[in-house]
Design brief:
Radius of gyration: 23 Å
Number of strands: 18
CATH superfamily of the largest domain: Alpha/Beta hydrolase fold, catalytic domain
Shape: globular
Distance between the termini: 61 Å
CATH topology of the largest domain: Rossmann fold
Helix content: 25-40%
Strand content: 15-25%
Length: 438
Amino acid sequence: MATYTDTQIMMTLAALTADGATARPSGETPAQQSARIGQGITAQLALTGLATQGGWSLSWAGLTQSGANLAYIAQGPNDSDGNSVYALVLRGTVMGDPIDMAEDMQVGLVLPFAAGGTPSIGSMPNISQGAMQAFTDIVMGTDLLTQLATLAPYTLYVVGHSLGGAMATTVALFLQQQASAGTLSISSILPYTFAAPTAGDAAFAAWFGKQFPSAVCTYNKYDLVPTAWATLASLPGDFISNPFYPGPKANPAGPGPTAEPLNEVGILITTVAGETNGNTYVQPTQQAALNGGSSPLFLESYPAAATSSVQQFELQVAFQHSGNTYLTLLEAPTIPSSAPVVASVSPTSGSSAGGTSVTITPPSGSTFTSDCVVDFGIVPAASQTVASDGSSITAVSPAGYGTVDIRVTNMFGTSPAVPVYPNLSGNDYSDQFTFTAS
């Protein structure tokens, strides 16, 4: 059996937080969604082909009332001394979620972070308003502390990718204070961050580094997110010596498009960087950058619909930031895609009175899991039956009006609505169903 490093294992645990991130369109309570997320994470942790090798198990999953922030606790194999080992894993940004996006972008105001401890000398650590919101949503909006208090003395990894990585820095400092006060029986806290934007200022970065000198903070050289908010503004100006992204004539070569001070990508970056309102953010000490060799990993081509440089840049950003790209760069197994995708529906219309039998088909090479449920817009299907081999779902339409997306939800997530404009996926999928007059 292969032996994996702690960094590979922790990134795998971080990547699993994407399970069930999107709520079912017809609605579900936070408790229902949290339970569904837990089922998905449990199923993924059981996979022996991942770096976790089936040796970790879910202890708890907590979703905030808004559904924007998630944490889960997994128990791993005991350490060499027989002590219990747990990982607290924090979810990063759910793209399109307004609360998550606000937490990422609320950097124009900094707030003192006394919850993480107060240095005896030097400045008070400050974090962004968005980082503070994410922190308080997790520690006050879930029963995280109650769950941690039930555990015997243990080593705790605090882990996150993207926004989850920034949250890991604040939560680790907070939990250390709780352990010092005797509230929690944590013998050692080991932070691991991946692709994390900055959470705070220089005083915060210095305080985190002092408390956790062995923290592992990992980033991809060509990932835009970790440049926010410390070095984001400088990217367009480095287009000659350190292009982001390198074009075909650069060394090393890349697919571009390159951000320059006066092109549309550079102007976009400069505009976004201005959200800091003059605040200076600093990254904690980082590991050597991934993907910094002579043959970097890029998304090498763009779909035909991605005609603008901004669209191409956004696709490259998403690729470089994804959990599976980080796993690939760390030479760890990637997470299989298990969330449903709808490629087509037939027929594409039916009576507004309901009762139309609709066959839903996944993309070639994909199948639906047996726990899939179907929604017509925001209304559940009258019934659904998943084929025994997962090759299709037969759903009966409810009563309705207009044109809606037929979307499928399972323990791993919800199918995206298709098509969208602009269609940057390169696929001609459609899940739309039109209710016609009875």
